[in-house]
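Purpose: get a first structural picture of the assembly so the mutagenesis plan has something to point at.
Setup: two entries, given in the order below. No constraints added.
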Amino acid sequence: MNILPYVKRSANYAYEHMTKNPGSMFLITGSLGWILSSIAQVTAVVINKKIDKKEKKFLIPQEIADAAVNITSFYLLTKNFTKLGEHFVKTGRLATKELRSLYKNEKIGEQTIESLLGSKVSVTKNGKTKLKDFDISGLKEINDKSAIAGFKQTLSEKYFHFADGITFISSIVGSIISCSIVTPIVRNKIAAHFQKKSLMKEQKPLEPITPAVPFQHPLNNDNYKKVSSVNAFPSGSMKV
Amino acid sequence: MTITVSAFKINNNPNNTKCCDLPHDLSSGVKYNPSFGALVKTHDVGETTEKLVKWFGKCSTPMNRFILGVAAVMIQPWIDLHNKDVDEKTRKVSRARTIAKNIAGVATGIPIRILCIKSIDALTRTPEELKRTNKSKTSWNTALIPDKVLNKDTQEWVNFTDEHFGEALRLVKKHREAIGSTVALVVMLFTNFALDVPITKYLTNKLIDKDEAKNNKKINTKGGNA
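Result (structure tokens, whole complex):
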């Protein structure tokens, strides 16, 4: 059986639904990965007989919270750190000396790359300047012919190597802050809360002290006379 | 002439024909060329930093996993051990499990990623890569490259001229990442339970034993002194 056509069909499907839309694809696969890993780790805790029940009451919610907090903090922190790194490169806030000199001196037709990309800067409706003046991919939007020259292997490689490096570093910094600092602190707080709650539930409530003879309510004079201790020790003619 | 508008310096260049939309307060006939140098405070990285940044740029996903794993083993157990909300024994068990889980994650995650990358690379060879390596071409070499990018019969790029070759390569790279993350997820479905669970359990117990032995030794030493 030739499976090649099926592989090709899967590749075409992946291209249409995942490559073209990497954002949602990574959101789904990333979140599913964390959830799967969390389920496996919960299993590891449950089947471990060496861990006491009391510790399990902490470790199981800890692992579940780990997945939930990791997913949240990834999208709140890591992604924004990565975006910040990309923003620094795209706007030219961070560059190499060589790259900056190329932008200033290399010409596409009559204009330098700097002036071509500079013309891409626009002002948004709320008056904010949208900085896009160092992003090499912006050359394609300006003019196709310019893009051909602009995407020359040297310039393209120099820009993308630097951009990839900055993106990688910023994503690593973001990941360490979110996954190794924020997540453990938050997940521990959540797990401790659940452990406390579960332990309190498990503690047997104190049995109410019941008197040998149940009180007769309302404790009026007639009922009082019925209480055994009163009958056992009659006071004779003495009025109580 | 230089005009300064809200912290940005903008050069007035009347010869510049390609001018962008102007801010509302400057729209009265002023033309400018807001080049990157004039717009924002910039920083050129030094030579050593540049080399380091470029090295990081070439780092693969397994290296990413390794760095994050090392950071996790160094930081997370410390946080667990200083968790004041639980008793000391829970803290120690939690620390042991965190160390075990992260070591197991790195030990299985890196080889899986390498295997996934290698196999996907083998199935997404570009014609140029095949020419360079002088390897015999089979239809499996380009099996995972979509038909909209590479014509499967002629083995030529679709919609990409020679000048846009760099773009085609970046698209193939993106496609490899997309397939890679999906394949890794499917593989993880099995390895998480088949490898991570037993390794984590084994290492956790070893660490708990080690901790208990250390504690007993401490008690014995104290008892002897007393």
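Chain B touches chain A through 87 residues (CB under 8 Å).
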